[in-house]
Amino acid sequence: MSTAEYAIGTLAAAGLAMVLYGIVNGDWVVDAVRGLLEQAFTVGL
Fold it and tell me: InterPro entries, per this entry (predicted)?
């Protein structure tokens, strides 16, 4: 691959990382993970 292809691939990877970071740090994701953990730890009680 040429340098231009590497640059485009790097920009695409950085863009995807930003999108995924935004999704993972969304309130609904945090609430869902918290709910799953609370449910997992209170099943036996």
Answer: DUF4244
